[in-house]
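Hi U.,

Before I forget, here's the chain from the pilot set. I'm dumping it here mostly so it's searchable later in email.
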Amino acid sequence: MQTLYPVLKYEDARAAIAFLERAFGFETHASYDGENGGVAHAELQLGDEYVMVGSTNEGEERFNQGAGKQSLYVVVDDPDALHDRAKEVGATIERELTDQDYGSREFTARDLEGNLWSFGTYRPSADPA
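Structure:
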């Protein structure tokens, strides 16, 4: 069961959600409109994992770190297919598919507001190699 949930803020959360669905295959599990016309809270699902998304103009200002400053790593079984999908819909690929020395195959893409998304086969473990 997932116990760590990344939270991403976007200036245009609706456009970001649409991009994350098209480029990376996320599905919207829930989305709630905010009082200021943005997205107060959304939950996006990829496989069994979730990220939370919201608009920068919603919620308490003291918890708003701004948009486009995050970096996430997502474990996927087929990074090649996801890379091709992301590239096909116009995602900015910052690092092409690469086989890493530590055994992972991965790439990095930037979303519409500058967050970096790395996708690969490396699975962090509590047991050191």
